[in-house]
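Example 292.
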Amino acid sequence: MTTVYLNGNYLAMEDACVSVMDRGFLFGDGVYEVIPAYGGRLFRLSHHLHRLQNSLDGIRLTNPLSDCTWQEILDEVLQRNREQTSASNDQSVYLQVTRGSAAKRDHSFPDRITATVFVFSTPLAEPDPVDKTQGVAAITLDDIRWQHCAIKAITLLPNVLLRQQAADNNAAEALLIRDGLVIEASASNVFVVRDGIILTPPKGEQMLPGITRDLVLELAEQHALPYAETDISENTLRQADEVWVTSSTKEVLPVTRLDGKVVGDGLPGPVWQSMIQLFRRYKEAVRNGTEK
Ligand SMILES: Cc1ncc(COP(=O)(O)O)c(C=O)c1O
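Predicted structure in complex with pyridoxal-5'-phosphate:
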């Protein structure tokens, strides 16, 4: 039985109910976070809570909880779902805040309304080892999303359609192109390696500032791997020696086929090999409680 947190209560998932008038359901009026926890320890929690605050500010919704209370709830959900997981106790926590439900369906914000807070966790499997040894396929698509992609909004219909187009083409991800530049992917950030230098687009309103992305750049900095945050043209993408996508659940995943063509020599590249070792070491340190 999976336990969830909903508006102050811990419940079995099948007993958790939200009003059909909830603005998350009617308008997609809400934001969310996905946070991995290794060995029961939340990965980069302060970064995720900071991004949550930015997302809430972006949709003009007051944070219903303090950081301290968020941590208590997330830890409690992880603890209650502990027996569902393998010995490693790796889980992924999903949290969602919507503007709540009102008696009337009206686009503008209701006067008095209480936010809906929902949290659940699921076992987090290691990324498929075949994907790590062979890499995955990706396709490029036009970025059809709105102009505030830095907000982690639950309104994900464009991302859903883009990802499905990738799936229809037997690809793991869709890399999104806007005005000739690579922005990010449908549910991950994008890196390319060119002449040994790790490149990723700079943060801005058009992309989600990934927590995994930031860690990859921090690890590059700490270990003197050359990198730059810079615009990446579609042309540079197509000439890349390596392409990676990053996210909380994909970690750092090599893309070895792009639009049906081989990337580099068709195998996960040497810079990725270095980065994934650093990333794994960091993850183990979180598990052991020596890193957050
Ligand atoms: C559109 C998009 N970009 C990037 C990411 C990666 O973010 P993170 O590393 O924080 O998981 C995600 C994660 O879901 C995403 O949905």
